[in-house]
Task: inverse folding
């Protein structure tokens, strides 16, 4: 079993590089099948964790899409949510009437997603959909329109996801083990 140490914690592989690629590809195909007006589409990636996934999704879509980023934090350097979402960087785009697709790494409690959805609606977006790579099936949100895979209640790292800012460059997904 593949195991690594990041700072003070041990992580073991949950999805191999190939399994991760398959999850991303399937998710991208679903988006491609269901979004037809790419001219009106604005992909908004959630920094920092959502960026590798955002890039892979963006490159798999045809047409002239618009891309921007926001930065939201809820975990700090911990392995559990602080319970409060902070928007550290907002988009400067005019979202009025646009079809926004939020692209994030993972939904846990759903607070970040809910916060961002409301935020873009208040900026006048015509529609706001959510795409996340992993979904922990929290209780606060309705199911995201697109997601790669359910996962259990594990804390994971890799492919953008960090533990205390480390592990984002890993090409597989690892979970915290005891
Ligand atoms: P939520 O607001 O849904 O509770 O948390 C969403 C954000 O918390 C994610 O976008 C991600 O940045 C962070 N997060 C949630 N679960 C994990 C996890 O298992 N690992 C890492 N590295 N970050 C997580
Ligand atoms: Mg995130």
Result:
């Amino acid at each position: 079993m593949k195991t690594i140490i990041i700072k003070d914690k041990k992580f073991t592989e949950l999805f191999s590089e190939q399994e991760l690629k398959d999850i991303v590809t399937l998710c991208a195909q679903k988006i491609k099948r269901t979004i037809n007006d790419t001219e009106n589409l604005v992909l908004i990636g959630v920094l920092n964790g959502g960026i590798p996934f955002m890039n892979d999704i963006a490159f798999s879509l045809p047409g002239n899409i618009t891309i921007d980023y926001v930065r939201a934090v809820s975990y700090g350097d911990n392995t559990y949510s602080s319970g409060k979402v902070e928007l550290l960087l907002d988009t400067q785009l005019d979202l009025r009437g646009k079809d926004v697709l939020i692209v994030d790494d993972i939904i846990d409690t759903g607070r970040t997603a809910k916060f961002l959805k409301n935020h873009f609606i208040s900026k006048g977006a015509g529609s706001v959909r959510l795409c996340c790579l992993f979904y922990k099936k929290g209780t606060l949100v309705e199911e995201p329109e697109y997601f790669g895979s359910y996962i259990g209640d594990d804390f994971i790292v890799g492919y953008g996801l960090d533990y205390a800012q480390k592990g984002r460059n890993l090409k597989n997904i690892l979970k915290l083990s005891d």
